[in-house]
């Protein structure tokens, strides 16, 4: 292996080392020190990704790609991981949280570059297992329910994925994702099983049941792993798979149907939610649905649109969950006057919700424009209609929460101002920048996504 | 001569396996399982398949049993838990037994027939080259997966004990 090839593995190695270091420090060091060490190592990994942005891809390493798509995916996963690190808590003195976030991030980085079935499944499972452990850390009953649901359904989905990979291998004689596009019975069964397994990880209907429980019962950091990190990494993996469409028609049809169902169901059920966390849970199902529809429709814009949408959604969900974490399980009425009590939190939450709706000047607007343009360019009118209905419904509940956060408090001040740590402030500030700047000046983001799209 | 050793080792493995699945204590079952796996490795060695024997020792008697030991260490295995599980899985042995019986049928049918010809030899060198060459990163990813699982077990254990670790 040459030096260039080793350097291309640097981000993954640094993130893995961050996880191991955080695990070793967990029993002895205070949370601040663990978090600082983990963040430093992960920031170094992010810097390495950024420094290599223009570098030629390293001589192809068999199982992990080093192309622009892998780098963009890794950068997004690391950014999400760093943001989540800011609101990881210790639970009853247990301080494994940062280790789990770093491990999940390493899974995400691997997933972004996975060009082989083995790397794909390992990346997905590392992320899922870390998410399960993080969910189970608080000793509350809702956390237990969310954790066991995720664990059991995650196990079923892992088995489904493995069986799908086995069928795809039997059909093609290769574990490389690029070879999985063949036709025939084995490839079709393999494609269907792979799709079912990935739909669970990507929280598409009807495999979404674990998501609302996770968002309402688990620590916000675990929800953010599912909503931002795992979504970005799985989205990139789906993009690579969509290039070959394992199983042919089965793949596109299934992905489109699951995506449309998720977009409609997520948005419609989200209307009835009064808790911020549960609303975000159902809305993340809807956003997965939009992404799946872009991937299913294909067409000239699909790759670019997927990446722009992911880059627009990830900072919004991290910011919203960071605020939710600072507030505790908060309902819509309790949000009133947040911007007075804690201007940064209220402003960031309002902006994040604005970005999820898709209104300018937030970057979510660019994401929605790309969503509709990609579906129209692919002439997928049914999917376009489903996306439009979903997005229209979403206006209602996002704005309800957004207005509550920005509105003046009713009567006297009741709730105390939530305390924001330095890390949380930094996360919110970076997230606001990542929402507003590309919203006002999208060219760099579009250039990155255009270069990375396969 | 060596085939006689193979038959003895195989019989020993069978006996140890039969004892393992009928033991009450999970620790005894584990030790018997270890015995069965080592006896199987001995059978491989006697049948002039040292590579398969070494893999059997490393992966099954080594890694797999280590995982079982780890599970036994971290879960509650008192008399009360044993009674509860016995009630829970009263008839559960029937399914694995049926699967094992089904798997035996094709093997017995082929007993008298000729072998299908030797498969391509998979040498230790080839495997090593894969594991420390192209697949090295995947092997490392596997270790990260195990670490995530291990932390998960610690978290679960802490929930069960209801106290600090």
List keywords for this structure.
heterodimer, A: 454 residues, mainly alpha, B: 165 residues, Four Helix Bundle (Hemerythrin (Met), subunit A), 7 helices, 78% helix, globular
Structure description:
Chain A: Its main location: membrane. The complex is a heterodimer of chains A (454) and B (165). Chain A has one domain. Chain A has 19 helices and no strands. In chain A, helix 15 packs parallel to helix 18. In chain A, 63% of the residues are buried. By secondary structure, chain B is mainly alpha-helical. Chain B folds into two domains: 87 residues, Up-down Bundle (Four Helix Bundle (Hemerythrin (Met), subunit A)), CATH 1.20.120.1200; 41 residues. Chain B has seven helices and no strands. The model of chain B has no long low-confidence stretch (mean pLDDT 82). Classes of the chains: A mainly alpha (454), B mainly alpha (165). Chains A and B meet through helix 2, helix 5 and helix 6 of A and helix 7 of B.
| Corresponding CATH superfamily of the largest domain in chain B | NADH-ubiquinone/plastoquinone oxidoreductase chain 6, subunit NuoJ
- Computed over alpha carbons, the radius of gyration of chain A is 20 Å
Q: Write the element-wise H/E pattern of chain B from the N-terminal end onward.
A: HHHHHHH
Kindly state the percentage of residues in helix of chain A. Answer: over 70%
Mean pLDDT of chain B: 82
End-to-end separation of chain A in angstroms reads 26 Å
**SS element count, helices of chain B:** 7
């Amino acid at each position: 292996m040459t030096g260039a090839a080793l350097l291309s593995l640097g981000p993954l190695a640094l993130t893995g080392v961050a996880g191991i270091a955080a695990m070793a420090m967990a029993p002895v060091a205070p949370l601040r020190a663990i978090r600082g060490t983990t963040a430093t190592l992960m920031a170094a990994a992010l810097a390495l990704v950024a420094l290599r942005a223009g570098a030629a891809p390293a001589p192809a390493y068999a199982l992990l790609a080093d192309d622009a798509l892998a780098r963009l995916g890794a950068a997004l996963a690391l950014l999400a991981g760093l943001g989540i690190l800011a609101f990881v808590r210790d639970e009853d003195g247990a301080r494994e949280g940062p280790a789990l976030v770093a491990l999940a991030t390493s899974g995400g980085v691997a997933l972004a570059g996975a060009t082989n079935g083995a790397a794909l499944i390992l990346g997905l499972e590392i992320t899922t297992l870390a998410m399960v452990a993080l969910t189970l850390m608080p000793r509350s009953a809702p956390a237990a329910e969310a954790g066991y649901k995720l664990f059991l359904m995650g196990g079923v989905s892992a088995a489904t994925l493995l069986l799908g990979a086995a069928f795809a291998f039997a059909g093609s004689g290769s574990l490389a994702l690029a070879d999985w596009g063949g036709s025939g019975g084995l490839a079709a069964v393999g494609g269907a099983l792979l799709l079912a397994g990935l739909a669970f990880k990507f929280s598409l209907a009807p495999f979404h049941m674990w998501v609302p429980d996770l968002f309402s019962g688990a620590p916000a950091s675990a929800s953010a792993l599912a909503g931002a990190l795992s979504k970005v990494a799985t989205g990139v993996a789906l993009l690579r798979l969509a290039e070959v469409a394992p199983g042919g028609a089965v793949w596109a049809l299934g992905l489109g149907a699951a995506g449309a169902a998720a977009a409609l169901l997520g948005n419609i059920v989200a209307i009835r939610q009064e808790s911020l966390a549960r609303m975000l849970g159902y809305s993340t199902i809807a956003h997965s649905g939009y992404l799946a529809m872009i991937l299913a429709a294909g067409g000239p814009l699909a790759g670019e649109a997927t990446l722009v949408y992911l880059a627009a959604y990830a900072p919004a969900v991290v910011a919203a969950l960071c605020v939710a974490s600072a507030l505790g399980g908060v309902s819509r009425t309790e949000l009133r006057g947040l911007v007075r009590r804690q201007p940064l939190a209220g402003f960031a939450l309002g902006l994040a919700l604005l970005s999820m709706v898709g209104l300018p000047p937030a970057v979510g607007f660019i994401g929605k424009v790309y969503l509709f343009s990609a579906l129209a360019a692919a002439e997928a009118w049914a999917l376009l209609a489903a996306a439009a209905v979903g997005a229209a419904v979403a206006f209602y509940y996002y704005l309800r929460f957004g207005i509550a956060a920005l509105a003046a408090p009713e009567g006297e001040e009741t709730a105390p101002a939530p305390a924001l740590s330095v890390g949380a402030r930094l996360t919110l500030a970076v997230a606001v920048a990542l929402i507003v700047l590309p919203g006002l000046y999208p060219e760099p983001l579009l250039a990155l996504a255009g270069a990375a799209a396969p | 001569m060596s085939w006689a050793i193979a038959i003895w080792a195989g019989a020993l493995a069978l006996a140890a396996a039969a004892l393992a699945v009928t033991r009450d204590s999970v620790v005894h079952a584990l030790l018997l399982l270890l015995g069965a796996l080592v006896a199987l490795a001995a059978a491989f060695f006697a049948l002039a398949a040292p590579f398969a024997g070494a893999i059997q020792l490393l992966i099954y008697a080594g890694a797999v049993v280590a995982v079982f030991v780890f599970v036994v260490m971290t879960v509650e295995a008192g008399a009360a838990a044993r009674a509860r599980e016995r009630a829970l899985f009263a008839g559960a042995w029937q399914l694995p037994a049926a699967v094992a019986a089904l798997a035996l049928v094709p093997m017995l049918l082929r007993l008298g027939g000729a072998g299908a010809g030797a498969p391509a030899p998979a040498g230790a060198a080839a495997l090593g080259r894969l594991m420390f060459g192209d697949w090295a990163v995947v092997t490392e990813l596997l270790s990260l997966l195990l670490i995530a699982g291990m932390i998960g077990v610690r978290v679960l254990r802490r929930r069960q004990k209801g106290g600090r670790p």
